Amino acid sequence: MIAKIGRGANMMGALSYNQLKVEKENGQILATQRIMETLDGRYTVAQLHRSFEPYFMVNKRTEKPVLHISLNPDPADKVSDAQFVKMAQEYMERLGYGEQPYIIFKHTDIERTHIHIVSTCVDRYGKKIPDNHEKLRSMEICRALEQKYNLVPATEKQRTGNEQVFRAVDYRAGDVKSQIASVVRHLPKYYGYASLGAYNALLSLFNITAEEVKGELHGQQKNGLVYFALNEQGEKASNPFKASLFGKQAGLDELQNQFAKAKEKMKADPVRAVLKSTIEMAMHTAINEADFKKQLLEQGINTVVRRNDEGRIYGMTFIDHESRTVWNGSALGKNLSANVFNDWWNEQAIGQRQEAEKTSAQNQSSTTGNTVEKEETHSLFDFLNKEQPADDLLIDGLGGLLPEAQGEDYEEQVFANSMKKKKKRKRHGRQQ
């Protein structure tokens, strides 16, 4: 069983997402705790929300008081409604939320029948419930529930402690070729990706990009790959390195074989349904693009947004570090395609501009009333949008840090390095 724990500030969004499943007969409310009852047993979003309002009133400091958890048994598991309720109650009790108000929703819109639990992490006295080591505790609870209810164990990739430690490439540190090699030679052992675009999205995490090159050799058309190091703005910051320098597995032919195998494997991967549900959940609870990315990042999922020069989104990629798979949004579902996000965030941007203009009109004395404050970025991949990078963030499970931005000039550094090499050659010549 896989558990996903999400947090947000939009309780109406979380309730609407789940209640919509009920109204479309793709879900039902299995049980509630500390929720005001209705005469006919039916609920509206507004009725459910009223049970949480007292908790939010006594604590307005907690940034994300909404708790939204999904419990996902294996598709082969046959779990009754009564068992789902017991598992949810035991899970909440052991995680520290046993006394909280919550609603247990069952979703049946995908092959993997699963449950969602909507609650709050603020108790009745206004205190935020501690969440120390919550992910680890959640995993332990899931393993215990698997044994107790005879469920199929989650197929988690075990970490042995002897894995390759990946580091982001720092083009200023020298020996760029070896830095790229340490990532490219080992990355295929740990991650699955079904296209060159998905591969590049993952490589970008390590300040690397791969570019396809075409040419003619002995009268025959040849295709290949070259690799570059990237700077903080996602621009090429090194000379190209032929894929053959990094071994057969880094070349285009071998990668295309890997793409085909991964594509076939990912079709039946149960992670797909869990990831899709998690992203949809964030879409309904996030208040803007930055919040959406942050919510997913907190669950070990990075979002890569690709925009053209006009700012239109033409690609959405999600990297799930828990399952170590890379997915294009459209491969997860039509509702997660680039066009959907482009329309959604463009509408938000228009709304923000209108609100800023309204504020400016109401407050003519303010010199900053006609500007929109830029959203704080949280994604490790924001430099793909040609923006300044976010602060350094630890990549959980990989042991790598994005390099800090420094004020050096790359061309100047290359020139300095070449001068050092010339001096060394002259010294060697004198010794001879």
TrEMBL record:
It comes from the Bacteria. Residues 41-151 form the MobA/VirD2-like nuclease domain. Residues 353-374, 407-432 are annotated as: Disordered. Residues 359-371 have a biased composition (Polar residues). Residues 419-432 have a biased composition (Basic residues). NCBIfam families: Bacteroid_MobB. This is Conjugal transfer protein MobB. It comes from Pseudopedobacter beijingensis. The gene is mobB.
